[in-house]
Amino acid sequence: MSDEPISRGTIQNPPASIAVTLAANETRPVYYAYNYIRVTEGSYSRGDVEFRFSDTGQPSTLVNGQGVKLEEVVGRVTLTNTTGSAITLTLDLGIGEIYDDRLSVSGTLKSEIWDGSDGPVDVVVGSTNSLRVYDANTLDVERLLDGTSDGIQQGQKTLGSSALNLWALNGTVGTLVTPAANVNGVLVVNAKCGGSSYVTLMAKTSAPSGYNDSSAKVLVGSVVSTPSTMPHPILVEAGEGIYYDSSSSQATNHIVGSYTIL
Fold it and tell me: Which among 70, 12, 71, 61 is positioned nearest to 39, based on CA atoms?
């Protein structure tokens, strides 16, 4: 039987995933109309399995994760186990191309994320770690420590020279920068706040009375369970302090971002 190109017709084969176990030194044809084939599972070395897409030509060698696109649709692939042991592999076949974005990694990945101190950050990938990037100016790292919702800690790498990373605001006014320390101005580069109560980041020449002090300049503020992001950098004038507060004590209350004392 020769592998003549088959008619594509008006209905084409959907992608199929086919598991095959080859006995030692076995040759077996797998019949399916395809022009794209990819090995998605299989633990064997290159050359252990030969792939023939036609009755003529040299065999190909594919290992797990590799695939090939043929010029024509054919009706079978012939597999040969060249070893003395059984081999199990899974093939994805279809007409067109098959994409699989799944990634399984355990270990440490070198990244281009710069932490502003001693070089790129190592991103540890595993079942208890995850990395999420929200925007170009702020990198929020969400790390699941113990597999439960209360084991989540969040940190931030930002563009300002000082990190703003305040959590568990407790309904008491806190000071980020005192008026005396603000001699030439403070540039708040970016800031985001949220939580289970009202949260406010403010500027004033003296400590505000609370999160809703009407005489304070609000840099960014959020209402209950509705996060808010400062839309652009804000320059706090010399002589003004920067303060924060929330309407109640909640573990989720937070303000993150960065600032630079000029």
Answer: 61
Return the DSSP state at 53.
S
CATH number at residue 35: 2.60.120
Domain carrying residue 67: 16-94
pLDDT of residue 227: 87
**3 state SS of 149:** helix
User: Which residue bears the tokens 């079978």?
Assistant: 76
Query: pLDDT of 95-128, one tens digit each?
Result: 876 666 555 555 555 444 444 444 444 444 444 4
| CA distances, 67 to each of 8, 41, 87, 97, 158 (Å) | 21, 12, 18, 10, 40
The count of C-alpha atoms lying within 13 angstroms of the C-alpha of 138, restricted to the half-sphere facing its C-beta, is: 25
Coil/strand/helix, residue 151:
helix
What per-residue confidence (pLDDT) applies to 100? 61
Q: Would you state the structure tokens that stand for residue 242, as one six-digit string? A: 């920067």
Q: Which of 60, 94, 128 is at the close of a domain?
A: 94
- CA gap 55, 58 in Å, rounded: 9
For residue 109, list its beta bridge partners.
123
Question: What does the pLDDT look like over 43-72, one tens digit per residue?
Answer: 898 889 999 987 767 888 888 888 888 888
- Domains: count for the chain: 2
**Could you tell me if 49 and 112 lie in one domain?**
no
Rg of the Cα trace of the chain?
30
